[in-house]
Amino acid sequence: MRHAKPVAIALIASVLWAPAWAQKPSVYPAKGQSAEQKSTDDGQCLAWAKQDTGIDPAAVANAQPVPTGPQGERLRGAARGAVVGEIVDDKAGEGAALGALAGGRRARMNQAASTQQAEASKAQSLDTYYRAYGACMQGRGYTVK
Q: Which of 3-17, 55-69, 72-86, 106-120 has the weakest average pLDDT?
């Protein structure tokens, strides 16, 4: 349980910063390419990056995390609480209620971690796609940042 807080902070930080990494890079025509040529190259490199990586940025950006149903945390917490309550002072009902509350908290934490992981995965996919796009544009004589 001591390691849960640093892990949660790392996950939150990655989710907050990851979208910045997954932005389409800025492209400058370093060899005097016209706006029309830049537009053509841009379209071709976007299509190439999609084919090369197998990532469709529109599908990734619009993907919704798959909600997971109850995983039984509340029920297990109630059972543990009932057992402890009975052992400690014959108050199984109170123990079960407290255990269910703790299990509900655990379920919410697990759902939040799952959502954060899905968002980080989404950002990583977009980053991979845009790195491929940037490599293509650099190969065509553009400066990419």
A: 3-17
Beta bridge partners of 144: 27
Range in 4-13, 16-25, 69-78 the model is least confident about: 4-13
The structural domains of the chain, with segments of one domain joined by +, span: 4-144
The number of CA neighbours under 13 Å toward the Cβ of 85 is 16
58 has pLDDT over 90:
no
Place of tokens 């057992």: 83
Buried b (16+ CB within 10 A) or exposed e, 79-113: bbbbebbeeeeeebeebbbbbbebbeeebeeebee
pLDDT for residue 109: 75
Q: Using alpha carbons only, how large is the chain's radius of gyration in Å?
A: 24
Return the structure tokens found at 116: 């954060």
